[in-house]
Design goal:
The chain is an alpha+beta fold and 372 residues long. It has 9 helices and 17 strands.
Length: 372
């Protein structure tokens, strides 16, 4: 038996891997700060071997409540990820599984590899305008996909927090629908709007296997008031381009560790936020809920959750600055309890489908702005 995390986004610390029924591991911190929750590793030579894996410092992670009701994901081929038995006792997260193949990959959520990101950008390059808005701390491009010819500028960003891999799965689904020339809704959006899509705001953090930070240890979603080239060039460059194009609709795609639902968080708590935009926000979320059972509006964040740091968050900064509908869309690491799936939980396929479903309220929002 051999355990390794020496690959793209791999992350784990080994305490003792001498016995398959008592594998002792620690979840490691992000590369330059103390955020910790993401794990991703491979176990070799374990076909038909019952495994008991103890993540001993789970209770000391950034979101310990995120382990309650959580099931880890595993895969033999890194294509299909399924849930495995997972129990949490308040300190140790225990995973149990008997692999039917010789190697198994285990992760916090289905990874979105950087090579797949490169493939997505290459695919987009044949259907849209692909550019780099700047570079990260480690000199990786901040890829932007610009699509459509309409006058309304729409911005959609994902993976400010690199461990929230479901967000780039969503972007992949969205892009696949937008690029379908036979899709009437996509064609209408293209005529009404120009979409600026950032599939991965934080490629450095993604490759490092970080949960929430970039290579400098910075949480990008607390940098939107005063981004800097030294600490947060990712936000600095994207925000500058937003001010160049303007914003008519903004979606910031995230994953939530604790809440087992898909939901949005809007800008109703911002003082002087336009009443018209608040009404449009409600119309957008209600239409998304009627489009797919994988979205709901009953559960989400408390209105005052971000009161002290409100305008440092992307969606709040954009809503305040541009007065437009500006939403954070959250997907679960666990499952969407309105429609649970015991085999896969919330998954890449469901994330992709949600990306496709977003086209319906996006089009409706564009039509409402055109009519006004």
């Amino acid at each position: 038996m051999y355990i390794t995390s020496q690959f793209d986004a791999g992350a784990i610390d080994i305490i003792d891997a001498g016995q398959p029924d008592n594998i002792r591991l620690n979840i490691r911190a992000d590369n330059a700060c103390e955020f910790r929750q993401w794990f991703y590793f491979r176990i070799q030579d374990v076909r038909n071997t019952p495994l008991t894996i103890r993540l001993e410092n789970a209770g000391n992670c950034t979101y310990p409540q995120g382990w309650e009701g959580y099931q880890a994901v595993a895969s033999y081929d890194r294509q299909t990820w399924f849930r495995i038995q997972t129990d949490y006792d308040g300190q140790v997260l225990t995973l149990q599984h008997t692999p039917i193949h010789n190697n198994i990959f285990i992760a916090y959520f289905a990874p979105y590899p950087y090579e797949r990101h490169r493939d997505l950008i290459a695919f987009a390059n044949t259907h849209a305008h692909v550019s780099s808005l700047g570079t990260t701390i480690e000199d990786r491009p901040i890829d932007c996909v610009t699509w459509g010819t309409g006058p309304l500028p729409i911005w959609i960003i994902a993976r400010q927090h690199p461990g929230e891999t479901m967000t780039e799965w969503l972007i992949e689904g969205l892009i696949n629908r937008l690029f379908n020339n036979n899709d009437v809704i996509a064609r209408q959006i293209a005529q009404l709007a120009t979409l600026h899509i950032i599939p991965n705001m934080n490629p450095d953090g993604a490759i490092h296997g970080n949960l929430r930070s970039n290579a400098a240890g910075i949480n990008l979603n607390r940098e939107w008031m005063y981004p800097s080239l030294n600490n947060s060039p990712e936000v600095y460059h994207v925000r500058n381009q937003m001010h160049t194009t303007g914003v008519s609709l903004f979606l910031d795609i995230h994953g939530d560790e604790t809440i087992p639902h898909v939901f949005t968080d809007g800008c109703g708590m911002i003082p002087d936020y336009p009443a018209a935009s608040l009404a449009q926000e409600q119309t957008f979320t209600q239409l998304l809920a009627s489009t797919t059972p994988d979205f709901q509006t009953a559960y989400g964040y408390a209105p005052d959750r971000f009161s002290d740091e409100m305008l440092t968050l992307a969606s709040k900064y954009v809503g305040h600055t541009f007065g437009c509908v500006s939403l954070t869309l959250e997907m679960p690491f666990k499952d969407h309890n309105n429609r649970p799936d015991t085999t896969y939980g919330w998954s890449p396929i469901r994330s992709q489908q949600l990306g496709k479903d977003l086209c319906v309220p996006i089009l409706a929002h564009c039509l409402s702005l055109q009519n006004n």
